[in-house]
Amino acid sequence: MKRKNTEPYVRLTRPLVRDSGELRPASWEEALERAAAGFRRTLDTKGPEAFGMFSCARATNEMNYVAQKFTRAVIGTNNVDSCNRTCHAPSVAGLARVFDSGGGTSSYQEIEDADVIVVWGGNPREAHPIFFQHVLKAVHRGAKLFVIDPRRTSTASWAHRRLQLYVGTDIPLAHAIAREIIHSGLANTAFIERATEGFAEFAASVEPWTLEAAEETTGVPAELIRELAHTYARADRGQLSWTLGITEHHNGTDNVLSLINLALLAGHVGRYGAGLNPLRGQNNVQGGGDMGAIPDRMPGFQNILDADVRAKFDAAWGSNIPPHKGLNLTQMLDAMERGDLTCVYIIGENPVQSEADCEHTIKRLSNVEHLVVQDIFLTKTAQLADVVLPASAAWCESDGTFTNSERRVQRVRKALEPPEGARDDIQLLCELARRLGHDWNYQGGEDVWNELRTLSPMHAGMSYARLEELGGIQWPCYREDELEPTFLHGRLWEEDPAKRGRPAPFTVIAHSPPVDLLTEDFPIRLTTGRRLDSYNTGVQSGGFPSPLRRGETLDLCPADAVRLGVVEDEVVRISSRRGEIEAPVRIDEGLRPGLAFMTFHFPDEIDVNVITIEATCPVAGTAEYKAAAIRVEKLPVTV
Amino acid sequence: MTIVGLGLPRRLVEFTVDGEAVRVPEGSTILDACAAAGKDIPTLCFGDTLEPANACRVCMVEVEGSRTLVPSCSRKAEPGMVVRTETDRTRLSRKVVLELLGSATDLSTTPDVAGWMAECGAEPERFGPPAPASDDRDDRRPGEHEIPDGLTAATVRQPVKVDNELYVRDYGKCIQCYKCVDACGEQWQNTFAITMAGRGFDARISTEFANPLPDSACVYCGNCVEVCPTGALSFKREHDKREAGTWDESRQTATTTICTFCGVGCSLTLHVQDNEIVKVTSPHESSVTHGNLCIKGRFGWQHVQNR
Prior knowledge:
- By secondary structure, chain A is α/β, with parallel strands linked by helices.
- Chain A has 24 helices and 25 strands.
- In chain A, helix 7 packs antiparallel against helix 10 (211-218) and helix 16 crosses helix 18 (358-366).
- Chain B has a domain at 167-304: ADC-like domains (N-terminal domain of TfIIb, Single Sheet), CATH 2.20.25.
- Chain B is globular and about 60 Å long.
- In chain B, strand 7 and strand 8 (204-207) form a beta hairpin.
- By secondary structure, chain B is an alpha+beta fold.
- Chain B has 7 helices and 12 strands.
- Chain B has helices at residues 30-36, 88-104, 113-120, 179-184, 223-227, 236-244, 295-299, and strands spanning 12-17, 20-25, 60-63, 70-71, 82-84, 167-169, 194-197, 204-207, 233-235, 252-258, 267-273, 276-281.
- The model of chain B has no long low-confidence stretch (mean pLDDT 93).
C-alpha cells in the first residue's frame, strides 16, 4: 500500500485563545492574561488541588525545575508529572524502593567493560542505537550478550542467546533464573549476607519456579534459562539493562523489582562494570524526575514527605509546600474524569496521542475547564486548549542541561533563534508566575541551575563551567572539586555497617499475566515498540524524509498471515475491547504465531492507542502498552 | 569517596624525531608523538575515532634501519627509534602519492590538500589532462576496465549518486581511504552496508550488488559522512547548497547541544547558516557518541525549522 503522508507540523508563532469554541490568534498580553486569569479563578473557587501540571521530559532540567516550582510555590499543589509515567516510572519506583535512588547505576563505559550483558524487554539496536554501539564494543571484546524479548529483533540478532518469552511472563522467567542461581550454589552469599535483607523469604517464593515450570509458562527452553542463570551469576561484571518491555505492563514495578532481585542475588550492583540500567525513552526523562517534576519528590530526588526537606525549600522559595504526595499523571487523568481536577497546564507533552486508550484521554481533557498548552506545535493536545502559548525548542533554541540514561548532566546550548513570535519556556513560566504575584527574575538557564545547586546536594558540584570542561558530569556530584565514582551504590560493599547504610531488600513478587485476556474473540497478543527512524506521536520525526520510513503496519508472522488469509500490504481491521483501527499488514519472521507488533509513530494516520489497554501499574501508574488482546479481520472487498 | 581516573599505567618511551628527543607514553604512534611535538604530518585516511587503515600513504616517515618508509599513523613508537619526517625520500613519496591521487580524484573539497601539494611541489597535470568522466563505475561488469590511452590521466570521475533525501555519494572524490567502511562496519555502526568492490583501478566503495542506498542495508546514521575526509560523502543539504553556490562556511556557527530522540544523550554539533541548521555532526571526543549518531540524531532536526 502506498503510504499516505501527512503534512509535517508547522511551528506555532502566535498565541491562540478559545472564543465561542474556536481557537483564534491573540496578542501575547491577551493570551498570558487569559491563562493567568484561569489559574486565579481555579485557586479562588476550587483551591490548588484542582490544578495539574504536565511538565516536559524533552525540555531542559532548568525548565522542569521552574515548572515544578511554579506548581508548588505559585499554585500550592504537588500535582506535577510528565510522560515518565508512560514509560519508565516503574524503573524509578523499583530502583528507588530498593536503593533509595531512581537512576541507572552504571556508565556507558562500564557497559563496554562488562563480561555479560542482559538486555531484557528492549530493542536498543533500533531504539537506542548509540547505547548499542557500546554494547557491541563489549561483544567484540568477548562479552556475552543475552537478549530477552518476545520478538526476534535486530538487537536479538546480535545476541549469543535469545530468550523469546511470551509477552508478560518476565516475572516467571526472572524467578526461574533466581531459583537456578540459588540451587546451583552460585548466589553471591557474601554480598547477600552483608548488603541485603529478605533473602530467605525471596528464596522460598521462587521455589515453585523450576526450569520446567518456567519453560511451560514463558515458552523459553529450560536449557536457555539455565545458561543465562549460570553465565550471569558467574560473571565478574554483569550488566542488566531494560526498557519498556519491562515497564509498560500493569505490574511494571514488579517486573523491575524482579530484575533487581537478580542483581542482588549475583552481587551485580555497586561495583565498576556491574549494574542495573533502564534506558530512557525521551531525552530528559531522568532529568525531569531529578528536578522534582514528579508528584512525590523534590529537586534532587528528595522525599516530599520529609518535613526538613520541605522546610528547606519553603525557606528558599517563600512557599508552603503541601505535606503530601501530589497526583501522578495517571491519577490526574482520573481526577479530570471525576471533575476534581479542572485546570491543567501542559508543557510540551501530547497526552492525547501518547496515552493508552486515547479516546478516553480526549474525553477527560475535554472535561477540563481551563486548559493551557505550551508547545512548539499545535499538537492534537494543543487543539483542545483554551490558551495555546508558542514556545521555543528546548534542545536548540535555549540554554540549559539535560540528564541522560547514565545520569550524565550535559549542556544544552542555543544554536538557533526561535521563530519570531515564539518565546522561551522559562520566560513564559516566570511571566505567568509574575501575574500570580511571584516576582521571579532568572536571567537565563544558568541562574535557574545555580538556584537548583543550592537546594539539591547531588547537583551541587556541577557548575556550568565544570559541565563544559568535563563534557558533562554524572550525578551525584556533591562538591566542585571532587567527582564520585561512575557507578552508584558502592556503599553496599563497605565493610563498615555504618557506611553501608540501609540494606537493599529482596522483594517477593507474584506472577500476574496481562490484564487483557486472550479469548476466542481476541486471540492475538499485540505488543508495541519503536522503529529506528521514527518516534512516538510522530510530531518531531515526521519532519524529515527518512528513506527507511514505511508508515504504520500490523506486523504478523508468516504463519498467522496464512491462517488469516492476508498478504503483505493488505489493509486489515484490528479490533480490541476498546476500539478498532485499520492498518496494512507487514510480514515479520521475527514474530511467533499469536504475536503481533505495532508502533505509536504515526497516530495522525493510524492511532494505535485507540486499541491499547489502560490497565496501569498500581505503584507507578504506567499503562500496559505492551499487551493488548486483538482480533485481526480481512476487510470485505470493495469495488 | 573520590575517584580520580588515572587510566592504565603507562611507561614513557623515548625516541628521536628530526633530531629532537621526544618522550611519549607507551603505545603512542609516531603520529601522536609528532602531534604532541607540534609537527604537522599530512594525513588523509587517518581517523581519530578509527583504527589506522594504512590506506593513503601520505603520512609516511623514514625510520632509521627500516628498508621502507613507514606509516606514522599506525607505527607505534619504540625506544631509541630514530624518525625523520622531512627528508628527500619522504617528500618525494608524498609528492608522488598526492600527484597520483590528484590526477585521478577530484580533491576540490579535501581540506588542506592544496597546501600540501604546493609544499612538496606535486604536479598532477604531468600525467596528462584528465580522461573524460566515465559512466557509473558500479555498472561495470567484474573484470571489465577501460584500457588507458596513454594520453590522458585515468580518473575515477563519475556522476554523483543522489538516490535519497539525506546524503549523496560523489565517488569522483573518493580516495578509498576505508574510513567509511570501518565506520559502517565492525568499528562502530556494525551495519556493513558499504565496502570495497572491484579490483585494481576499478576498486571502489559500493553497496551489496551495487544497490541504490534505499535498497541496501544502509540505516542512514551518516557516520560514514562524519569520517569522510574528501567530501565524497556529503549531506544532501550541504551538497544542494554547494551546487546552488549558497554554502558558506565563513557564515556558519557550530554549536554543540544534546539530541532529543531518546535518553542516551548524544552530543550534536549544529552547523547553522542564516539561522538555519545546514548540517549536524558529532564531537569525536564525546564519551557518549565518539562522533557517531543515528538517523534521528543526524537528520531529525527539520521539524524545528518548519516555520
